[in-house]
Amino acid sequence: MLRSVQGIVLRSMDYGEGNKIISLFTPELGKVGVMARGAKKVKSRHAAVTQLFTYGDFVFFKTRGQMGSLNSAEIIEAHHALREDLHMSAHASYLAEMTDRMLGDEEGSTYLFEQLKAGLMAIEEGKDMQIVVHLYEMKMFELAGYLPVTDACVSCGETSDITHFSPSMGGTLCSRCRYKDTVAIRVGEGALKLLKLFPRMDMRRLGAVQVKDETKAQLKTCMRTYMDIHIGVKWKSRDFIEQMEKYNI
User: Fold this and answer.
1) Prediction pTM value
2) Which residues contact 5 (CB under 8 A, 6 or more apart)?
3) Rounded to the nearest 5°, which phi and psi values hold at 104?
4) Residue 93: which of 121, 150, 126, 53 has the closest Cα?
């Protein structure tokens, strides 16, 4: 069956002499694998459209249970800047890697597609990359069924005097329940406000937010620890981001 869809390239890898296989995320079909024959060749009409992060119109032939075969494609947004800037590339790669590895074949939704599209655009527009990443991580937690409790104490349900975030217990803790997790992460008012906001916020509405360094440090610890405990995936792109942070690149 010939399918015509819009999609974002999550992953692109060489295959054989001159071909590429791309992992394509689409609103209608979810995540699909597509073979682009001859795309490795410099003069190929498919060379540009199969690059990582490319958002375009794709026409491919696909039968049930088989990989698609690319027929034609047109670029809507090339996202050159995301591939040319090291920091942008690293953070955009993390969004793409999360989507690619946490979705099964033909799994996804129009909403998640729009969140990824908006996230890539937000990074390219110079919005705070760490906030973009954390917002998208929260979408991934929801997809996986591990959305943390952030609007009340995960232990007793109290909505006031929230002081800590417990990755292992699955959400925030009030001062009276803090003793239940001795390694819970203390969060200030700014970090708590954003943790409450992330599950409800649409990436398309993200503005040019300014977040204090202390708040961002708390968020980073909360989100990365939660990801490691509940998702348990070794992310290549996040490792690279952490190396850049370590060496202040």
Assistant:
1) 0.96
2) 26, 27, 28, 29, 57, 58
3) -85, 175
4) 53
